[in-house]
Amino acid sequence: MTSTEPVTELDPRFSDPTATATSWARARDGLAAAPLYWLSTVRPDGRPHTTPLIAVWLEGALHFCTGADERKNRNLEGNPHCTLTTGSNELDAGLDLVVEGDAVRVRDEGRLRRIAEAYVAKYGEDWRFSVRDNAFHHGDGGTALVYEVTPRTAFGFAKGTYGQTRWRF
């Protein structure tokens, strides 16, 4: 993955007159540091499905894993469009982030090993995975498929001095 600098725009309709656009660097740091994310996918009948999960930012994309029989995986097999969100539950402080893109299954074992190491670096030894057969494997015998979401569009919602920034890639 190569790093791409997006077009950054502040939307004055939803921003304080004194707000400035949030930099992509700040947003990227927020995506990398967040402990928890919410993944939204689309069910086969068109209804939304949202679930919390952990993820890592690596090589210009968010990466998460899921079991093959889980609803989010079944949804993504039929429709890769998704959003990942993270942020702060504070009303007047923080930065909420929304990443829109397509979830693409990661199968390259070299990349999977880098992603697995990123999980350990961020979340600790309880999240150590081995890599084989194009998937993550956990000590308890569980197998997880790994997806990456490269941002197509992202939004930042600054709070305190409210500002809505859009990044287009």
Automatic annotation (TrEMBL):
InterPro entries: F420H2_bilvrd_red/Heme_oxyg, Pyridox_Oxase_N, Split_barrel_FMN-bd
Pyridoxamine 5'-phosphate oxidase N-terminal domain boundaries: 26-135
Start and end residues of each stretch annotated as Disordered: 1-21
Name this protein carries in UniProt: Pyridoxamine 5'-phosphate oxidase family protein
Keyword Hydrolase: no
Lineage: Bacteria, Bacillati, Actinomycetota, Actinomycetes, Pseudonocardiales
Organism (species): Prauserella endophytica
Keyword annotations of the record: Oxidoreductase
This protein's record includes keyword Oxidoreductase: yes
One Pfam family this sequence matches: PNPOx_N
